Amino acid sequence: MFEQILSDSSLVKTHGYINGEWVVSASGNLFDVVNPATGEIIAKVADLGVVETQKAIVAAHKAMASWAKRTAKEKSAVLRKWFDLVMSNQEDLAKIMTVEQGKVLAEARGEVAYGASYIEWFAEESKRIYGDILPNTTTDRRSVVIKQPIGVVGAITPWNFPIAMITRKVAPALAAGCSVVLKPAAETPLSALALVELAERAGLPKGMFNVVPGLDAPQIGERLTSHPLVKKVTFTGSTRVGKILMAQSAQTVKRTSMELGGNAPVLVFDDADLDKAVQGAFAAKFRNAGQTCICANRILVQSSIYDEFVRRFTEKAEQFVLGEGLSEASTMGPLITRNAVEGVSTLVADALDKGASLTTGGTQPAGEGYFFTPAVIRDLNQSMRLSKEEVFGPVAPIFKFETEEEAIEMANDTEFGLAAYLFTKDQSRSWRVSEALEYGMVGVNETAISSEMIPFGGVKESGQGREGSKYGLEDYLEMKYICLGDI
């Protein structure tokens, strides 16, 4: 068992966590957690469902009453201790993540630190929830605005960043005074359960953070969206599922925040620093084997530098070493499932059938695991699926454009609007293009744009709400106006 490689094997939990107790499912069912690098079953986890979700919601509602009354400093202290425990267990958490998700160990270590940064940030922001005293309308009245926790939060998170996507939601919720019922991805429940174990050690009261692992995501999601005690639903995942959850949440008029699909363009103009552009686009494309929502999904390069860009980009892609993430020699891990590999292969085949050219990669290596060699594709056009669909894998489609106007039009030709990037030395163009791009986040001569201090989120069908920064706390607070008369 992989627990042998951990310093603290007690971080590996296989039960759900409700009201401060580790629980099995009412049905007694278990589901398999598989190492995508080997195809081996690494754990069997309790398969919880609607019954357990109901119990978790009720427990969360009861627990929140006392937590919300704690002072900001008291809540902050618990969150800060949770942050310290996450960081002191960084190596074990990274190994758990690598085994169940596949990303190489260096990336997993980075994600643990990144995820922990949200706990630290919101521990501090919990002490900065301010209200207002409004101008008087009459001399005998005073008008006050206060902010209060919105209520029980239902959180549903994906498998690609199994720690960071949780802390970005749970930390601000707790900081605001809310309790949480979390449904983690069935592919990666072990990271979530390790996180809640550390939260318990930090002194978080029972019922404040409940984890419901299970295969029946639609039924668990429906319970979270329909239950009247749940006041907010936050989700990271596909636009298709996000729309379903939003529609369900409308029946009880819940607050929602959605971080949905992306189709991020990278615009490389002919006046760009080509070395920086290649490196930036490369890093944005292949992080986590291309399985990120703000990946470079379409690389748009101006015609005069197109061939040279493709040549340099291809050379870098050929240097990857595929392998199990625990091996220090590996520089790219597997995709999450066999279906993911087949999906990426289909997109590549579609482009090649319609006239595109493959400069490297695009194959499925023989052997165990869900690997796909990093692919670079050139000579694409707008008829190909790669121009419209999100690619969750290591495939870099490089398109050609002639003018700035054409590049903007190509970049905006999508229903998505999460992140976009551009490379240019022209400051006027930097402003012009940034303002014209229909995206919630834009990186100029930089693709490493995410941190706990920025408002992460998109526009159009990429979602609503923001995570991180001072704005990330507002999604978990309600504003209340109080009129004080007879002064």
From TrEMBL:
Tell me the GO molecular function terms.
oxidoreductase activity
Q: What is its EC number?
A: 1.2.1.-
Question: Gene3D superfamilies per the record?
Answer: Aldehyde Dehydrogenase, Chain A, domain 1 (3.40.605.10), Aldehyde Dehydrogenase, Chain A, domain 2 (3.40.309.10)
Task: Please report the stretch or stretches of sequence annotated as the Aldehyde dehydrogenase domain.
Answer: 22-482
In its keyword annotation, does this UniProt entry include Oxidoreductase? yes
In this protein, the active site sits at: E259
- Keyword field contains Oxidoreductase: yes
Q: Which PROSITE patterns is this protein grouped with?
A: ALDEHYDE_DEHYDR_CYS, ALDEHYDE_DEHYDR_GLU
What EC class is this?
oxidoreductase
Q: Which UniProt keywords apply?
A: Oxidoreductase
Belongs to which family?
Belongs to the aldehyde dehydrogenase family.
- Specify the protein name: NAD-dependent succinate-semialdehyde dehydrogenase
UniProt organism field: Rhodanobacter aciditrophus
Q: Lineage of the source organism?
A: Bacteria, Pseudomonadati, Pseudomonadota, Gammaproteobacteria, Lysobacterales
